[in-house]
Amino acid sequence: MTDLLICTALGIEARAVRDGIPSSAGGVEVIRTGMGPGHAARAEERLGKAGALAVTGFGGALGGGLRPGDVVVASEVRFGGRTLPCPSAPLLAGELARAGLPVRVGPLVTSDHIVTGAERRRLADEGALAVDMESGPVAAAAAGRPFAAVRVIVDTPEVPLLRPATIRGGVLACRTLRQVGPPLTRWAAAGGPRLVLFAAPRSFCAGVERAIEIVERALDRYGPPVYVRKQIVHNLHVVRELEERGAVFVDELDEVPEGVVTVFSAHGVSPGVRDEAARRGLRVIDATCPLVTKVHAEARRFAARGDLVALIGHAGHEEIEGTLGEIPDSVVLVEDVDDVAALPDGRRVSYLTQTTLAVDEAADIAAAIRDRFADAEGPQKDDICYATTNRQHAVREVAEESDLVLVVGSANSSNSRRLAEVAGRAAPAHLIDGPGDIALDWLADARAVGLTAGASAPPALVDAVVAALGGLGPVTVEERRVAEETIQFTLPKEVRSR
């Protein structure tokens, strides 16, 4: 049985793909079907024994933004009135991008003729990125097997076929096709049935949901633009979606016009930032998570009685900067156990914790503080938020059953990074922003995949990962739930329903 059968229309395409596949890659066959959907359909008998099917070769761009040599990975193939999904496209596209190729993911149309002029524009208006003449029949013949369609752009609306300039596009496309083969072999090697173990709870917490809703309601009530100091939560997808609705994210308030609506992020701000906003007449809506507000109140209470506050956390994190600003003359940042030894003697010590730390990491540092200062006092309730704690407990449980753990979250999300660290003690674990960040080599021997998401990562990203894995083979999903979360926070008066 062939592990991967790669179909091309032309001999020049087949040679370019073969040239790029290493000799050590077994179970890979490259065939020429002939040009057009008729020839591709007649090759169906040759497709039956392949574990995974791929179509590659040259293609035509339908709209602007694509140039000769660019790569299109089909998210779906439209052919003969049918739409054939290609769910593993983000995984393959990510692999091609890491190989240095310019990649786009989107719909591919299979036509029985060369598409030009008004038809080309119509297909582009319908959202398709590129057109070919062979992928549709092969996609239909896949019948549940892993399938991929990868087209390298030769012609564009500006440089159509049968023009001298297309020759240069063909040369570029051949060079690119040589680089397509190795990612396709890794894609096929990652195929097979899988068990996905959901850690629960996962994804958005109440504080994140509240912060996002505050920005959405502010946009609805006051209209765009609504300015937001820093990222409202640490997730690139959330930020992009809000930007599309009219939110403007800034690093500092001097980038905000005077008197406009301004939202403070969920991580909180220092009194100095609040004072600056007041001086500039900004219409502030505070989206600080109530659990962060609690830490600020504890910091002020400890400092008011004369304590030196050891703030356990990571330098540069926005939550830490806000808390440091509350009591600048009474606080010392403690990032690890070694920092405890540098705390000065002769003053009562209390300690507080960043809300998104790993539970055991923070506990070790707090224990070191109590060992050195016998009367050291901590917060009345644990500072690490319930959502962080629950997600860490849940991912620890699934990691013990997993060959691989994927944590969905952005790299600047502290709680997401901590989840990957916790999971990594039991199994290989990786932080990903979405399915395109999953290296196919991680999946080659992983039959049980643990999956969770940081408190700032949208649930839809988790669904996208499962869908992409499903494009590599059958997926069975089971959930491991360690807690139920019912906490809700009220909205600020500026955005409550009237």
UniProtKB/TrEMBL annotation:
The active site is at E319 (proton donor). Its cofactor is [4Fe-4S] cluster. (2E)-4-hydroxy-3-methylbut-2-enyl diphosphate binds at H234, H267, H317, T355, S413, S414, N415, S456. It catalyses: dimethylallyl diphosphate + 2 oxidized [2Fe-2S]-[ferredoxin] + H2O = (2E)-4-hydroxy-3-methylbut-2-enyl diphosphate + 2 reduced [2Fe-2S]-[ferredoxin] + 2 H(+); isopentenyl diphosphate + 2 oxidized [2Fe-2S]-[ferredoxin] + H2O = (2E)-4-hydroxy-3-methylbut-2-enyl diphosphate + 2 reduced [2Fe-2S]-[ferredoxin] + 2 H(+). Isopentenyl diphosphate binds at H234, H267, H317, S413, S414, N415, S456. It comes from the Bacteria. It holds the Pfam family PNP_UDP_1. Residues 28-156 form the Nucleoside phosphorylase domain. The keyword Oxidoreductase applies. GO terms for molecular function: 4-hydroxy-3-methylbut-2-enyl diphosphate reductase activity. Pathway: Isoprenoid biosynthesis; isopentenyl diphosphate biosynthesis via DXP pathway; isopentenyl diphosphate from 1-deoxy-D-xylulose 5-phosphate: step 6/6; Isoprenoid biosynthesis; dimethylallyl diphosphate biosynthesis; dimethylallyl diphosphate from (2E)-4-hydroxy-3-methylbutenyl diphosphate: step 1/1. The keyword Iron applies. Dimethylallyl diphosphate binds at H234, H267, H317, S413, S414, N415, S456. Binds 1 [4Fe-4S] cluster per subunit. Keywords: 4Fe-4S, Iron, Iron-sulfur, Isoprene biosynthesis, Metal-binding, Oxidoreductase. Belongs to the IspH family. PANTHER family: 4-HYDROXY-3-METHYLBUT-2-ENYL DIPHOSPHATE REDUCTASE. Catalyzes the conversion of 1-hydroxy-2-methyl-2-(E)-butenyl 4-diphosphate (HMBPP) into a mixture of isopentenyl diphosphate (IPP) and dimethylallyl diphosphate (DMAPP). Acts in the terminal step of the DOXP/MEP pathway for isoprenoid precursor biosynthesis. This is 4-hydroxy-3-methylbut-2-enyl diphosphate reductase.
